[in-house]
Amino acid sequence: MDSISAGNPVAWAIECYEAGILTKEQTDGLELTWGNASAMIELVERMIRREGIGDILADGVKRAAACYGGTERAMQIGGQEPGMHDSRNDPQLAVHFVAEPAPGKHTIGMGLQYGAMSLCDICSWAPPAKIHPKSEDLIPNDTLAWITKANACYSMLVDGAGGCYYAEMMGVHMWRLVDYLNAASGWDYNGDHYMQVGERIQTLRQLFNIKHGVAPNSFVLPARMEGKPPLKNGPLKGVQLRNQEQVSLYWRTFGWDEQTGIPSEEALQNLRIPELLAEEQYDS
C-alpha cells in the first residue's frame, strides 16, 4: 500500500459519502466522514483485504469514479493519484504532474527543488534561479518552460545513474553528479552532455507511451488542482493556472509538437535516437 495512492481514494470516498454520492449501503455500514479516524483505518484495511468497496478503491480513484460517479472529485492524472502537494501553489509542479510520461509524480521537479539545485552552473541553457513573485509563474512563459525542462532532464540523469532524490535537492555543488560520473567512467564530459543524456531518456519515455497508444495530451490536470473554480479564501485565494498552455511551451523546448507532445523527427535526430536504436538492434 502506497501512502499517496491509498490516502487519495480514502479522501475521495469521504467526499463522495458526505456529498451523497456514496451511500452507507455501498460503504458496508462505514460512516465515512471527516474526523472519523476509526472508519478511515477500517476502510484502508478493507482495501488491503480487497473486501467490499475496498476492492474497488484498491485500484485507485479513476476506477472508483467509473463505478460510483464523483469523477470531478477524483484527483488523478492518467490514472495516477498525484502527491499531496498543491499544484496551485507551484505552477512548475503542475507542469510535471501532466507532462511527465509517467504522470502524477511529484519527484520530477518543482519550484523549491529548482531553486536549490543551481542547475545553471552545469548547464548552459538552464535559466538561473531568481527570487521573484510567485504570481509571475501563473502566466505561461518560456523561462518557466526551460526551467521545467532542466528539472526533467536532470531528474532523468539522476534516476539513470541510480542517484538519490534527496541528494539531488542538495544542489550540484554539494552532490556533484557530473564529477562522480566522470570519475567512475573515465570520461571527461561536461554538464551539457549529461543533460542531453537526460533529455534522451525523457524523449524515449515519451516515445514508449506513444508506441503503446498512450497519447501525451490525454493527461490533464483535474479542475480543482488548476484552481477552477478558484478558492474564495486562504493564501491561494483567486489563484488559477493556465497549465495546458505552459505544458505546450514545455513540449516545445524538447522539440515535441506543442499540441500533441509527439517528438519531431528533428528532435529525434538531434538526440541520435534513430542511430542508437539501429545500433542496439544490430548488436542484439
Automatic annotation (TrEMBL):
One of its GO terms (molecular function) is iron-sulfur cluster binding. Residues 1-272 form the Aldehyde ferredoxin oxidoreductase C-terminal domain. Signal peptide: none annotated. Pfam families: AFOR_C. This is Aldehyde ferredoxin oxidoreductase C-terminal domain-containing protein.
